[in-house]
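Amino acids appear as letters; backbone shape is given numerically. Here is one record.
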Amino acid sequence: MDLLLDINVAVDVCTRRSPFYQDADLALAKCLYEGGRLWLYAGSVQTLEYVTRQELQQRQPPDAPPLSAKQLARQARNLLKAFSADKGWLAALASEGEVFDSDDPEDEQLIRALDRFQPGVIKLLTRDQGLIDAYLGKTITPAQYCQLPIKNSVLDFIDLKIQQDAIRPQLENDIHRVLHHGQYIMGPEIAELEAALAAYVGVKHCITVSSGTDSLEIALRALGVGPGDEVITVPFTWISSAEVIGLVGATPVFVDIEPVSFNIDVARIEAAITPRTKAILPVSLFGQMPDYAAINAIAARHGLAVIEDGAQSFGATQHGRRSCGVTTIGSTSFFPAKPLGCYGDGGALFTDDDELAEKIRAIRTHGGIRRHHHPLLGMNGRFDTLQAAVLLAKLPHFAGEVEARGRIGARYSEQLKDCCITPQVIPGNTHVYAQYTIRLAERERVSEVLKAQGIPTAVYYPKCLHEQPVFAGLGYRWGDFPEAERASREVLSLPMHPWLTESDQDRIISALSFCLKT
């Protein structure tokens, strides 16, 4: 549960107002221990400063020289600045300003702010008894909160809240900029983001699209892949990688994975090529890239295009070149859980080929190269301007997050190497650990034991694509891809994100190590 702090509670803590601050201190500490967040309401800033200043004035010793209004204001602001440094700020929304019919407009604003959330997610921490009586279920006193049973914190598998808190000012500013200019489709943020992403990857063109799945389909269409063609990919991945091949009328041809990296076994690709093969679509699974030098060499010998599905590897490198910038077309996803994610669906395509870039842009917008002129069959695949604003707020922090992912992943591997099979970083690669994935025989038992201790896990992917009913007509059977099949029965992903603390990671490592030894 999160807590929104009423002004009286905030002032109690800031000024150490007796006897109230003791319960307030305990309540705030309990909330943080249980994994909750503490919020202040942005619309209360002026009142918060005024009440803090008044409290400081009342507490001046009678024999001390009186402080000037400017001195009191400075003291109050310094206290509030320190107090608010680790708190979140709830923005004051327009609907919370229409409160003048209320007996207490300020209280009404706070309650309306709570109404943004689902019941039970957040409560107003206050010692105003009138407010408590008027809004039962939405308010709680510090003393009442401290008396609630202490709950062991449940770790987040991927914690997006910490990042959002850190970038909230820029995020809200960028979103409001879009709301004000009103260009919700293909607004100026789209071109700004595409230029920034192209520069980051190191290619000439970035074209944002509506999802990672659409990005793969658009890439295939831009390459002219269609009925009668074959596209080589892997059976151990999310369904999108093969689904899009079927959607354009082509046939997916699966090649087994190598057990160390979970990526396509390059040594098996050439045997899968036929006169109908039009492209190779490898997946950079879990956060690192397959051997694209070898893949590109095979493709060149046979006149094939290569599309990198870099949905999980954006930010990774191979011999200094970034994921999505090493093949004919690179594709990524901005699904919220990806290394660089927005707050909805989204994706992007990357290429150095001017002609392909023009086709991709056309296909993204109903096949049109200019208004009312449509030489290609396309789709409505445009990226939302609001989502571009979200990524523009996130992008300056991305390099630091990639570094943190690598550090946390390496620490996992060092600590767990003696009790399970840990992911290996292939020489020449960096790894962004979109998922930190181990292999073990007792996956279900281990997952249940960790869950009971508040540690979530996930399985990517419990069933290979050739086992999916939709691909039954391809004629593959169990045993055709032994490494992929074995991986699907053994993989288990642990909590992984750039803000995972060492103490939380130690908790995961200790619980897993103990479980595997018993």
Remarks:
- The chain has a mean pLDDT of 94.
